[in-house]
Amino acid sequence: MRPKLVVGNWKMHGSRQQVTQLLEGLKQGNEGLSKDVAVAVAPSHLHVGLANELLTGSQIALGAQDLHPGEEGAFTGAVSAPMLADYGVSYVIVGHSERRQFFAETDAVVAEKFLAAQEHGLRPILCIGESLMQREQGLSEQIVLSQLDAIVAAAGVQAFRDAVIAYEPIWAIGTGQTATPTEAQQVHWILRDHLAELDAAVASGVQLLYGGSVKSANSGKLFREPDIDGALVGGASLKAEEFLAICKSADF
Ligand code: 13P
């Protein structure tokens, strides 16, 4: 069985005090969790340094929410993969729908970020997912496969040996409307099956996370689906107790 992975995407939330409190709570509560469940948090870039200090010696891994594809240079406001790696970051989210929507990120830019992350030893968490309109038009499968194929074309299927994919239907993000375990499983199976046509070993090893209104009340059922290997959690990752309950529900 693939190990489970639960990642908290804190988005643009948190003060120094809130970050400290949340991480202290997570460190305490995380102790009893089995080694089969990996846990990571992705604070804002500004809080990565603080989080790195607070997480020293803990089992909780550090993630980031985005990166610039370049190594360094005149890119005002941007943060590069080497900078993140220097601060102990091991996972980085790429292609989140909020980046695609509000920052006009295309599949091509997402692919560059994915490659830059891997080049510097960071594990990309590639986000893909369809909008409500696309879903209503019956285009879900086509959209997620084309988003996935854009990265396969740029990086090759072997790149998914050390990458994570998060299926996040946009209509489920922050809406309280989760995909049912059966709906999510269906898409995850399509993704894995698609990769299996290219490389069976890569497909069976790649971790596929679900994201979109995950909370402790629905996570256990999602995690019991055969192709759901964890979750990318937004709002519910901002409360230590609730996030820990989600992590514990992956431990079975
Ligand atoms: P919510 O869990 O708040 O719906 O957000 C999901 C998400 O976008 C995680 O990346």
Give the CATH architecture: Alpha-Beta Barrel
Mean pLDDT: 96
SSE succession: EHEHEHEHHEHHEHHEHEH
CATH superfamily: Aldolase class I
CATH topology heading: TIM Barrel
Number of strands: 8
Helix content: 40-55%
Bound molecules: 1,3-dihydroxyacetonephosphate
* Quaternary structure annotation: single chain
Number of helices: 11
Structural write-up:
The chain is of the alpha/beta class and 252 residues long. The protein has one domain (4-249): TIM Barrel, CATH 3.20.20.70. Helix content is 45%, strand content 15%. The chain contains eleven helices and eight strands. The chain has helices spanning 16-29, 45-55, 81-86, 97-102, 107-119, 132-136, 140-155, 181-198, 200-205, 216-223, 240-249; strands at residues 4-9, 37-42, 61-64, 91-94, 123-128, 164-167, 207-211, 230-233. It has an eight-stranded parallel β-barrel, surrounded by six helices. Helix 1 (16-29) packs parallel to helix 2 (45-55) and helix 8 packs across helix 10 (216-223). The longest helix is centred in the last third of the chain and has 18 residues, at 181-198. The model has no long low-confidence stretch (mean pLDDT 96).
Short structural summary:
With 252 residues, the chain is an alpha/beta fold. It has helices spanning 16-29, 45-55, 81-86, 97-102, 107-119, 132-136, 140-155, 181-198, 200-205, 216-223, 240-249, and strands at 4-9, 37-42, 61-64, 91-94, 123-128, 164-167, 207-211, 230-233. Helix 10 (216-223) links the parallel strand 7 and strand 8.
Question: Helices, strands, pairings?
Answer:
Blueprint: E1 4-9, H1 16-29, E2 37-42, H2 45-55, E3 61-64, H3 81-86, E4 91-94, H4 97-102, H5 107-119, E5 123-128, H6 132-136, H7 140-155, E6 164-167, H8 181-198, H9 200-205, E7 207-211, H10 216-223, E8 230-233, H11 240-249
The structure holds 1,3-dihydroxyacetonephosphate.
